[in-house]
Amino acid sequence: MPRTILIGAPIDTGQRRPGCLMGPSAYRVAGLAQAIADLGHPVSDWGDLSLPVLDQVTCPNPAVHGLAETLGWTQVLTDRVEDALTEGAMPIILGGDHSLALGSVAGAAAFAHRAGKPLFLLWLDAHSDFHTPMTTTSGNLHGTPVAYIAGRDGFDAFPAFPAPIPADRICLYGIRSVDPAEHAALLDHDIAINDMRVLDEHGVVKPLRDFLDRVRQVGGMLHVSLDVDFLDPSIAPAVGTTVPGGTTFREAHLVMELLHESGLVTSLDLVELNPFLDDRGMTARLMVDLVGSLMGKKVFDRPTRAK
Q1: Residue 188 catalytic?
Q2: In the chain, where the domains are located
Q3: What does CATH list as the number for 4-294?
Q4: Which of 8, 218, 247, 273 is most exposed, with the fewest beta carbons within 10 Å of its own?
Q5: Is 223 a catalytic residue?
């Protein structure tokens, strides 16, 4: 069984609503490490990362905020995630807002490039996060990681992304909120967009299995980035960007079970949990339960019946 390494990323500078920096602590209090260990997986907790000395940086887009901090987090996360993968472990990054994926996926990409393996990205999120620092109107850099990962222009302040992931290796899944500028840019890229309309028409299984088959066929690595707002806010209220119509409890667990059965997941983000907005820890506990399903826990027994 793979060794798991927990990496805390107490980040909330990628957006404007304070609270995501408490996410790593909430996952620990909700028993994430024990839940993984109970399934027989060795688990280590590397603690929370901290910011390095920040560089002076500017962006031509005056709306952008938190750029220096975001660059600092990107740097340390890239290094730590690559370190964990180099040790043969599966890193789970405890967020923190979604800007952490700028660094976590960069670390996975750097390792995959060294290992000579193709890296794939499964983006479980209500949002496409396909803005660049030059196109964002909110200035929130948590809306930019997929654009950075795919190699879009506009990231001059950032280190060059190590081996950008080709569009056909990226799957946006559960999408239901896309800005016009993002929509126009996505039309120019061959990224698989499985929005909620697709999942309603075809179910959650086929689009995911099709993507996982492509990963398997080429012996790829798979980074999964799980945003709390992938889930419907009725079951996961602890997020600052709630969008109605998300996945249900059962759909989300089914996605995680399919990922476990595939045996393809090599790294995982847990992002946008804001414990300040939670209801007695229900969202943190649900996210921990979803990780359990990803690591092999069965939500319901399915005994065969005698004929």
Answers
A1: no
A2: 4-294
A3: 3.40.800.10
A4: 218
A5: no
200 assigned to active site: no
- Contact 39/124 with Cβ under 8 angstroms? no
| 227 given a catalytic annotation | yes
What global pTM score does this model have? 0.96
3-state secondary structure labels for all residues of 166-218: CHHHEEEEEECECCHHHHHHHCCCCCEEEEHHHHHHHCCHHHHHHHHHHHHHC
Sign of CA dihedral 229, 234, 238, 240: positive
Told to judge if 38 belongs to the known catalytic residues of this protein, a careful annotator would answer no
229 in catalytic set: yes
Per residue in 105-154, pLDDT (tens digit) is 999 999 999 999 999 999 999 999 999 999 999 999 999 999 999 999 99
Per-residue model confidence (pLDDT) at position 301: 46
Catalytic residue among 12, 98, 223, 289: 98
* Calpha distance 6→19 (Å, rounded): 20
- Checking phi first, is residue 296 left (phi over 0); if not, alpha (psi -120 to 50) or beta? left
